[in-house]
Amino acid sequence: MYSLIIIPIIVGFVTQVIKLATDGVPKNLNWQHLMSDYGGMPSSHTAYVASLATVVALREGFDSATFAVALVIMVVVIRDAVGFRREIGKDATLTNKIAKEVFKNKKDFQYLHERVGHTPLQVIVGFILGCSFSVFLYAIWIISIAMLKLT
Fold this sequence. Notes:
Number of strands: 0
Structural class: mainly alpha
Mean pLDDT: 82
Radius of gyration: 19 Å
Largest sheet: none
Shape: elongated
């Protein structure tokens, strides 16, 4: 049961750390990026839900109702990451360009966060990492439980 919770959390955290490394954030390291960054390579949202669906499939089976629910949630999150949130990011970019002209004399103006959604490649990489890390961690989980039962 705990594998359904712990493994996706680990996968989400690891992919967020990978994002910090791949997007050049270490040059401007801010740990807020770890929890509040909504775009970039790879998609940790996708990795997280792909991890959940993978672990549910491994534990409950591909023909279970639980896997069906996890799969539907995964599709909704991925669709949101590529579609809706990406459009919000495009709108934020345009709004910030306009705001720079309108509020050019104001130094304390707070611009919108532009990197909100994901490209299809970022989602694909997040999906692959989420599934593969989950299979690896689930295997370790099962082996650990088997080893504990032997002792």
